[in-house]
Write a structure and sequence with these properties.
Elements (H helix, E strand, L loop, with lengths): L1 E5 L5 E3 L7 E3 L2 E2 L14 H4 L8 E5 L17 E4 L10 H4 L1 H9 L5 E6 L8 H4 L5 E6 L5 H7 L6 H13 L3 E9 L6 H6 L7 E6 L4 H14 L2 H9 L6 H15 L4 E4 L6
Length: 270
């Protein structure tokens, strides 16, 4: 792992997400090294030649870039972790996310945190000081062998489910972010079934086969189940309705079970 401490020019950036006014990413790169991670496009802007997951830039001055005594962010949504995990293992040492949260408390934005890490539990004392705080735990695979292939440095799914339980017990709004859904592999329904007692809301996101990850995904499929390669090519063809049908299925399931949900699929509108 190649680590570099850098000075950032800004830390609260306007968001390009479907929902969210601003984003904060205390790090560039991510130690989870997820094979499917779309955020590897960041290499185009940072001039990194290393493989995704092999480098992390630490924005060492990030906490100092949070303004004081401003109403600009009150009731505005700030998302932690749009292109990194703010609670990746290195956060245990640098505590940038914790310091940023401390600076944000007086500003009272609507806080959304997306993470795979149980390190978020460390900051429950701070999260409870926000009037509107949501923590989304992402999980896609119940089979730990599959998880270990696709998310080699992340914690087990069962540990992530425990995070949701502890956050909910602490009074924090919880989201299970089923992302990305791998066709024929991710059991979104079983993940949802097993967490309804302690999850406030569900988010669902499809696997987007970006050119930057397609080769790696097909390499994984070749070792996992070669027959799925042709299936994926069919699913991702221009005339496929796979994601339309899956979206309908999720909507019907959530409505039948009276679940609060959001769907963030990457496909053409019907």
């Amino acid at each position: 792992m190649i680590l570099k401490e850098i000075e950032a020019k800004s830390i609260i950036v306007k968001s390009n997400l479907p929902e969210g006014d601003f984003v904060i990413n205390p790090y560039t790169g991510c130690g989870h090294a997820c094979l499917y991670c779309y955020a590897r496009f960041m290499k185009r802007f940072t001039n990194h030649s290393e493989s995704w997951g092999d480098f992390i830039d630490i924005k060492i001055n990030a906490p100092n870039l949070i303004p004081e005594n401003t109403e600009k962010f009150k009731n505005k949504s700030i998302v932690f972790g749009s292109v990194t995990d703010a609670y990746q293992p290195l956060e245990g040492k640098y505590k940038l996310t914790r310091q940023i949260l401390q600076k944000l408390i007086p500003l009272q934005p609507n806080l959304d945190i997306i993470t795979k890490s149980n390190l978020v539990l460390r900051d429950i004392d701070l999260l409870k000081q926000f009037d509107n705080c949501t923590v989304a735990i992402s999980a896609s695979f119940l089979d730990e062998k599959v998880k270990n292939k696709l998310e080699p440095q992340s914690i087990a799914t069962k540990k992530r489910i425990d995070i949701l339980k502890q956050l909910r017990k602490a009074g924090i709004k919880t989201v299970l972010f089923v992302s990305p859904i791998f066709p024929e592999i991710s059991d979104w329904k079983k993940l949802t079934d097993s967490t309804q007692d302690f999850v406030n809301q569900y988010w669902f996101e499809s696997l987007n086969l970006y050119p930057s990850i397609r080769k790696e995904v097909y390499k994984f499929l070749k070792g996992y189940n070669p027959d799925l390669i042709s299936r994926y090519k069919e699913i991702y063809s221009s005339n496929s309705h796979y994601w339309d049908r899956t979206e309908d299925e999720i909507q019907d399931y959530c409505k039948q079970n009276k679940l609060d949900y959001r769907i963030y699929f990457h496909h053409k509108s019907k």
